[in-house]
Structure formats: C-alpha cells, structure tokens
Amino acid sequence: MSNRTEWNHRYDGPITVNPLWTWPVRPMAVLRWYWDSWFFFSVSLAIVGLAWAAYAVTSPTLVSAAEPGTWMVIILLRNWVLAGTLAGGLHLYFHRFRLQGDDLKFDPRPYPRRGRMFSFQSQVADNAFWTLASGVPIWSAFEILIWWSMANGYAPTTTWAASPVWFVLVFFLIPIWESFYFYWIHRLLHTNLFYRFHALHHRNTDIGPWSGLSMHPVEHLFYFGTALIHFVVPTHPVHLIAHLMFYGLYAITTHTGFEGLKIFNRKRVHLGNFHHQIHHRYFEVNYGTLEVPWDKLFGSFHDGTDEGKKRMQQRLRDRKRT
Q1: Which residues contact 198 (CB under 8 A, 6 or more apart)?
Q2: Residue 40: its pLDDT value, please?
Q3: What is the average per-residue pLDDT within 50-55?
Q4: Cα dist from 197 to 78, 188, 203, 216, whole Å
Q5: Which residues are CB-contacts of 118 (< 8 A; sequence separation ≥ 6)?
Q6: What is the largest CA-CA distance in the chain?
Q7: 57 exposed, middle or buried (CB, 10 Å; 0-12, 13-18, 19+)?
Q8: 11-32: per-residue pLDDT in tens?
Q9: pLDDT at 4
Q10: Residue 122 DSSP one-character state
C-alpha cells in the first residue's frame, strides 16, 4: 500500500523520542523538547491551568475531604463535564462539521464507523458510552479515594511553602512517570491474559476524540491506577487533579485523529500523536510514549517511516518463526 493511500497525513520525517535519553547529552535539544511540549500554549499547560481552576472551584479542602460528602459528587460531575465537553467539542469540530476538512487528518478512511463490532453498532455511541459510563467514574473514584487518603494521613502531602522546587517539578515529572507506567501496563494488556479487555479499545483502528477513554472497566482500573503513586510520593491535591486530568483529558486530545488544530492556515495547537496512531493501525508497535524510549529499548518502536514499517514486518515474521 502506498503512503498516499495508507495515510492521509503523517509526521514529517522519522518520529524522535525525548533527547533527554540520548548520549552524549544535548542540553539545547532537551531544552527545546520541553519548551515545545509546554510553552507557550500546549495541552499540557492547559491541563495544569484546568487543574488549578478545578482545585479552586470544584474541589474540597483537606479538612472537608476527611469525611464522605457532596464533594464526592461534585468531583464526578466536574470530570463528566470536562470529558464530555472536550471530547464532544473536538468531535463536532473535526468530525461532525469537518471544519478542518481532512487537513492534518492521519487516517484517510472515513470516521466514524458503524458495525456490529461496536456497542449500539455505532463507533461514536460506543466510545462515548464507555468513556462516560466507565472511564469518568473510575477516574473520579481514584481521585476521591486519594483526596480522602490525603485528608486522613494515609497518603503523604506537601505544600508550596514546604518545598517550592519539588512542588513545581512534580508537574514536569508526571509525563515521565506516565511514560513508564503506561508502557508496562499497555504491554500487560496486550498479553493473552488481558487482551480480551483491551480489545474493546482496539475496536478503533481509526480514532476520534471519544476513542481515547473508550476502554473496558478492567482496563480503566489499570489505566487510572497510575494515581496510586500518590500513596508513595508526597504531593499536593492539585498534583493529583493534574495527574488524573493528564490521563483523562490528554487521552482525548491525542486520539483526535488529527495532528493539530489549524487557525488562519497554521497549526496552532498540537493534538494527535502519530506515534500512537500507528499503534492503533498495527497493534504490535509503539506501546509507550515518546517521553522515555521504552519501545526503542525493547524493539517495538515504529518511527513512522517506510523503513520503520519494514523493520516491524520483519520483527513479526521473525516472531512467527520462533
């Protein structure tokens, strides 16, 4: 299949991982990576801003969170609104009204689809159902549990006054932890033991915003289990909110199916991740993220080039022979 028919749009050049892990160290390349990842406007920075807003307006205090109460319902409602608004808005913009056409859309095939492989025979209805009925409640349950644990001294906490450098650093460490955690649970979900649960997410060989959190409840437990790190590492409630939003909302934006949002003929906001789009197409590559090169280390990296596809095909042939 030619590149033109295989992809409507693909990343220009080979996909690269965070240069932090290359040797010799290239400080300017590392600085550029983090600058481009966070400033001036990025999904990551927007999530941190949303986390602060949620902490200020729709979250309990550590005093009130010590006991069950309406704060639990407020957290669930807030996360439903955030996920529904973001996924619904991106779906309407890119796929329902096609306001960007096919410009920067990775997959040339029409989206969404219908068929018996989907709940309700509709990809969008299927994805929205599993996102809202399972994903958001489990996300919220982890947040509620750890809020309560912090309030009652079962999870360690810190404050800006106690450790300002660590307080800021935690936000930048979340993507690195996510890369480690996500790679290993993702590999686990691709084993024979657990793939029957992960298969629900892989109904989506082409993806849209609602696909990001469309998972089986068992997979949601694995996925949002990332938050259990807060029982070990001292953090502040705003870190907890940002961490879970990173897993919840970032999954929605990276599954948009488009590389980015164009305004006045220029890409202004980076959204979709071609690295992960390849995983949805081929399944057996790119299990992790680009923050830490786990896929490179374990031979499952596809850099988006023709040579990368040939290496993948050879690896799969070699595996069948053994």
Answers
A1: 189, 190, 215, 216, 219
A2: 72
A3: 98
A4: 27, 11, 11, 6
A5: 125, 126, 203
A6: 60
A7: exposed
A8: 877 999 999 888 888 999 999 9
A9: 53
A10: B
Rg of the chain over all Cα atoms, to the nearest angstrom: 20
What are the two backbone dihedrals, phi and then psi, of residue 85, each rounded to the nearest 5 degrees? Answer: -65, -45
Rounded Cα distance, 224 and 50, in Å: 18
As a residue count, the chain comes to: 322
- pLDDT, one tens digit per residue, over 227-276 is 999 999 999 999 999 999 999 999 999 999 999 999 988 888 889 889 99
Q: Assign 3-state DSSP to the chain and report helix, strand, coil percentages, each to 5.
A: 60, 5, 35
Distances in whole angstroms, Cα of residue 281 to Cα of each of 91, 286, 302: 20, 11, 11
Boundaries of every domain in the chain = 3-321
Element (H, E) at 178: helix 164-189
On whether the pTM is more than 0.70, the answer is: yes
3-state secondary structure of 104: coil
Closest CA to 181 of 302, 83, 287: 287
Residue 53: pLDDT above 90?
Answer: yes
* CA of residue 160 relative to chain centroid, distance: 27
3-class DSSP state of 105: strand
